[in-house]
Design goal:
The chain is an alpha+beta fold. About 30% of the residues lie in helices and about 35% in strands. The protein contains 6 helices and 7 strands. It has a 5-stranded mixed beta barrel. A hairpin with a 4-residue loop joins strand 4 and strand 5. Helix 5 crosses helix 6. The radius of gyration is 16 Å and the shape is globular. It starts with 5 loop residues before the first helix and ends in a 5-residue tail after the last helix. About 40% of the residues are buried.
Length: about 190
Amino acid sequence: MTLDTTRLNRERNFFDADQTLWLFGYGSLIWKAEFPYHERRPAHIEGWARRFWQGSHDHRGTPQAPGRVATLIESPGTICQGMAYRIDAEVLGPLDVREKNGYLRERVTLHFAEGDHAEGLIYLATADNAAFLGAAPLDEMAHQIAAAHGPSGANRDYLLHLATALEELGAEDSHVFALAERIRALPGDH
């Protein structure tokens, strides 16, 4: 099941249309920034954990065989590392379409390595969206990810690109790394 959140996101204007703003990427936005930006900086947000609990019916899977992609769950005391982009507000239009399968714009505080911070946006898919899959055993998730393929490519590639990007950032993410390890260990996967 899918829900196109494009219209809802266009109503969620937390920033003026003529200003630049920070966007925090914690999934494919870390390694697949196909939009113009003024600045790119490693950052983290606090109180959130990355999980492969969101269904992808439109990018990394199909309605009949959805893939699994990253979303965030509230997790007090947890740090989620990713990449922040300073963008013009007009860039949100195409991003709303890219993130339309259940993700909504939310405000968040971004923390940078240099010690400064800024208000910014994330795209968040919560448990009440139609494409949310929720928790499952890691082996079950790995098999679903290994089998799923959609218009944007293989779901396993999304996971492995994210794991590599996080490793390059020096980030810790036991959930992503455990899934990547399981994918790499599946028969026929190299």
